[in-house]
Design goal:
Elements (H helix, E strand, L loop, with lengths): L9 H31 L5 H23 L7 H25 L4 H8 L2 H12 L6 H25 L5 H20 L4 H23 L14 H27 L2 H8 L2 H13 L5 H24 L15
Helix pairs in contact: 1-9, 1-10, 1-11, 2-3, 2-8, 2-9, 3-7, 3-8, 4-7, 4-11, 5-6, 5-7, 6-12, 10-12
Length: 319
C-alpha cells in the first residue's frame, strides 16, 4: 500500500514520479483547450465547438480502444449509463465554452474549480461518505472565494458568470458515476463511449438549432482559421485526457489531485499572453481561497482515506 515515496520500492517510486510528470504536463496543456475555445467562440457556436472536441477526441482514442479489443464488451445497461454521462458532460462543456465568450479564461477556470468542493458535498449526500465539519467549513470557504470572483463578473456579464458553477456540478455528478463504472470497465472504453454519446447529442442539438440564430446551437460553416481552432480544441483535449489517464495509472489520485489547481496559474499565464487578461487583486484573493480550500480538502481525504475526488482524473474538463 502506497503511503509515501520514501517507503516505496525504487520501481514504484519511479512510477509515482512518472505520474507526477504526466499530470504536470496535462496541467500545462489543459488551459490551451480553453484558449482555442475562446478564439473559436467569436464565430462558432459553443455546441459546435463541443461537438468538434468530442469528434476529434473519439477519433484519437479509437485506435487505442480497438487495439485493446474490449470495445464490444459493453452491455446495454452500461451503454445507458454512458449516454447519461455523455449528456451530463455535454451540458458541462457547452456551459463552460459559452462562458468563455464573455469571461476571462482564468476567471472561468477558477470558478469551475469549486468542483471538488461540490463533489465532496454530493458524495456526503448521495454516497453517504463521512464528511466532518472541517471539510464542510473548507467547502464554505471555497464557495466564498468563488463569490469573490463571480460577484464582479456577474455585474459585468450577468447570469453567464454562473455557468462555470453549472459546469462544475455536472462534472461532479459525472465523477460519482465514474466511480461505479470504473470498477468494471476499461477507462479508455468509458472515455470513448462518453465521447461518442456526447457527439451524438451535440449533433441532435445542432440539427434542431439550425436556422434559429442561437449563438449556442445554430451551426455555421467555419472558415480556415476557425477550423484550425476547432482542431486545436480536440487535439489538445485528447492529449490532456490521455496524459491524465496514464498519470492516474502511475500515481495515487490523492498525490496528483493538488497539481490540478495549478491549472489556474497556467491558464492565467496563457490568457495573459494571448488575450491580455489578468485577474485583479480581488479575483486573485478569490483564486487563492479556492485553491487553499481545495488543498485542505485533499489533505483531509488523504489523512482519513476518504476520496470523494478520486475520480476526477476521468471527469475533468479534458475527458
Amino acid at each position: 500500500m502506497r503511503n509515501s515515496n520514501s517507503t516505496l520500492p525504487a520501481s514504484a517510486s519511479s512510477e509515482v514520479m512518472m505520474g507526477l510528470m504526466l499530470m504536470s504536463i496535462s496541467v500545462l496543456v489543459s488551459p490551451i483547450i480553453d484558449i482555442f475555445s475562446k478564439l473559436a467562440i467569436t464565430t462558432i457556436p459553443s455546441a459546435e465547438i463541443t461537438a468538434a472536441r468530442f469528434a476529434v477526441q473519439a477519433l484519437c482514442m479509437l485506435p487505442i480502444v480497438l487495439w485493446r479489443k474490449n470495445l464490444a464488451d459493453t452491455t446495454w445497461k452500461q451503454s445507458f449509463f454512458h449516454a447519461i454521462r455523455g449528456a451530463i458532460i455535454t451540458v458541462s462543456m457547452i456551459s463552460f465554452v459559452t462562458t468563455l465568450k464573455y469571461m476571462a479564461v482564468a476567471d472561468a477556470i477558477a470558478i469551475f474549480f469549486v468542483e471538488p468542493i461540490i463533489l465532496t458535498i454530493l458524495s456526503s449526500i448521495f454516497l453517504k461518505e463521512a464528511i466532518g465539519w472541517r471539510r464542510y467549513t473548507a467547502c464554505g470557504v471555497g464557495f466564498f472565494g468563488a463569490i469573490l470572483i463571480i460577484q464582479p463578473s456577474f455585474e459585468e456579464v450577468g447570469y453567464v458568470a454562473l455557468l462555470p458553477v453549472v459546469s462544475a456540478v455536472c462534472i461532479a455528478i459525472s465523477a460519482m458515476m465514474n466511480r461505479a463504472l470504473a470498477q468494471r470497465e476499461d477507462p479508455w472504453v468509458m472515455q470513448f463511449h462518453m465521447g461518442l454519446w456526447g457527439l451524438l447529442i451535440c449533433v441532435v442539438l445542432l440539427y434542431f438549432g439550425h436556422g434559429t440564430g442561437s449563438e449556442i446551437f445554430d451551426p455555421v460553416m467555419p472558415d480556415g482559421r476557425a477550423l484550425l481552432y476547432l482542431i486545436g480544441v480536440g487535439v489538445t483535449a485528447a492529449i490532456a485526457g490521455i496524459l491524465g489517464v496514464y498519470a492516474y495509472r502511475s500515481a495515487p489520485a490523492s498525490t496528483l489531485a493538488p497539481l490540478q489547481y495549478f491549472e489556474i496559474v497556467s491558464a492565467t499565464i496563457f490568457a495573459w499572453l494571448v488575450f491580455g487578461d489578468f485577474p485583479d487583486a480581488v479575483k486573485w484573493i478569490g483564486i487563492l481561497i479556492i485553491m487553499g480550500s481545495g488543498f485542505y480538502i485533499i489533505w483531509r481525504e488523504r489523512r482519513f482515506a476518504s476520496k470523494p475526488v478520486s475520480d476526477t482524473s476521468q471527469s475533468t474538463r479534458a475527458p
